[in-house]
């Protein structure tokens, strides 16, 4: 896989405090990368810089090898899905998805049919004429996803898109996001502080705390070789707790998260 995005030595200072401390990472074409870390560690700041809403203090961002650090958001061809859906409440589902398309040269003539098709793909055709407040949280988030997909972005960024949803809806939407990624071959960067969510969705997980990256690896790589105490405590121990409590509930003995359960 080719590098889609490369971040080099990114620094962000707010009020004399280094919120991002020279972080470097890359995302491959078609990859699903999670950024996993506790509240305040700098996840949203990374996203705001990537999408072009915030100019970093220093550092470089390359997309397909080209420096985009100073490019305005509108020229980056990236889409974002927020925690709070950010839908227009006075517009129908269809208008929400179609809105931005109407103003782009590429989709101007086909905006209605494109919006309808995307609404169908996220399973909301029967709600197409409704306004957002008539929909559940999960349905609203699907509208937000359809709206983001409509612009055909090369990279889709998610900022804790599930945190306002109940557990069952989260599981459902998680599968749908994975399906969407397969269907559209999008490169996705997904912010979460939920260990389980990052493990179930990601090709690789970037574990961070206090503005630094502790480890970037595939889920099994993190389980097998945690990079240090923070990864062991924040990731492995948390997963182990979940596994233990589930196992107790189901009356089975829990596997040890620190040891691979397969052919080792
Ligand atoms: N515009 C700003 N001005 C000053 N400080 C800021 C600004 N934006 C973020 N910060 C600070 O930068 C740090 C990182 O914030 P950020 O929003 O990136 O964290 P996060 O990892 O997304 O947290 P959460 O999981 O709670 O959303 C925090 O200490 C925050 O208070
Ligand atoms: Mg955040």
Topology, element by element:
Elements: E1 3-14, E2 17-28, E3 32-36, H1 43-51, E4 58-63, E5 66-67, E6 78-81, H2 93-98, H3 111-121, H4 137-150, E7 155-159, H5 167-184, E8 187-192, H6 195-201, E9 204-209, E10 212-217, H7 219-224, H8 229-250
Parallel strand pairs: 3-8, 3-9, 6-7, 7-8
Antiparallel strand pairs: 1-2, 1-4, 4-5, 9-10
The chain binds adenosine-5'-triphosphate and magnesium ion.
Magnesium ion is lined by residues 43-44, 159.
Query: In CATH's first tier, which class of the largest domain applies?
Result: Alpha Beta
Our count of domains comes out at 2
Uncertain stretches: none
**CATH homology-level superfamily of the largest domain:** P-loop containing nucleotide triphosphate hydrolases
What can you see in these coordinates?
There is one protein chain. The protein is α/β, with parallel strands linked by helices. The chain has two domains: 1-77 and 156-257, 3-Layer(aba) Sandwich (Rossmann fold), CATH 3.40.50.300; 87-152, no CATH class. It is built from eight helices and ten strands. The protein has helices at 43-51, 93-98, 111-121, 137-150, 167-184, 195-201, 219-224, 229-250, and strands spanning 3-14, 17-28, 32-36, 58-63, 66-67, 78-81, 155-159, 187-192, 204-209, 212-217. The strands form two sheets. A six-stranded mixed sheet has the order 6-7-8-3-9-10, sandwiched between helices. Strands 2-1-4-5 form a four-stranded antiparallel sheet, covered by helices on one side. A hairpin with a 2-residue loop joins strand 4 (58-63) and strand 5 (66-67). The radius of gyration is 19 Å and the shape is globular. Bound molecules: adenosine-5'-triphosphate and magnesium ion (MG).
């Amino acid at each position: 896989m080719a590098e889609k995005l490369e971040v080099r030595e990114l620094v962000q200072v707010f009020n004399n405090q280094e919120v991002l401390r020279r972080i470097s990472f890359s995302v491959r074409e078609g990859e699903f990368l999670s950024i996993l870390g506790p509240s305040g560690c700098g996840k949203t700041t990374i996203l705001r810089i990537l999408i072009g809403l915030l100019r970093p203090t220093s550092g470089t961002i390359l997309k397909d090898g080209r420096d985009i650090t100073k490019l305005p958001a509108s020229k980056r061809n990236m889409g974002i899905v927020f925690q709070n859906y950010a839908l227009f409440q006075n517009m129908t589902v269809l208008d929400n998805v179609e809105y931005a398309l109407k103003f782009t040269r590429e989709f101007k003539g086909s905006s209605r049919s494109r919006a309808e098709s995307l609404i169908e793909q996220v399973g909301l055709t029967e709600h197409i004429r409704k306004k957002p407040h008539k929909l559940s949280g999960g349905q609203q988030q699907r509208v937000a996803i359809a709206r983001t997909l409509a612009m055909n972005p090369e990279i889709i960024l998610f900022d804790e898109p599930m945190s306002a949803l109940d557990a069952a809806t989260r599981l459902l939407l998680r599968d749908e996001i994975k399906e969407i990624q397969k269907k559209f071959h999008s490169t996705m960067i997904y912010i979460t502080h939920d260990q389980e969510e990052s493990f179930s969705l990601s090709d690789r997980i970037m574990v961070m705390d206090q503005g630094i990256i502790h480890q970037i690896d595939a889920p099994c790589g993190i389980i097998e070789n945690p990079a240090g105490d923070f990864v062991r405590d924040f990731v492995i121990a948390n997963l182990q707790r979940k596994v233990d409590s589930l196992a107790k509930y189901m009356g089975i003995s829990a596997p040890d998260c620190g040891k691979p359960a397969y052919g080792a």
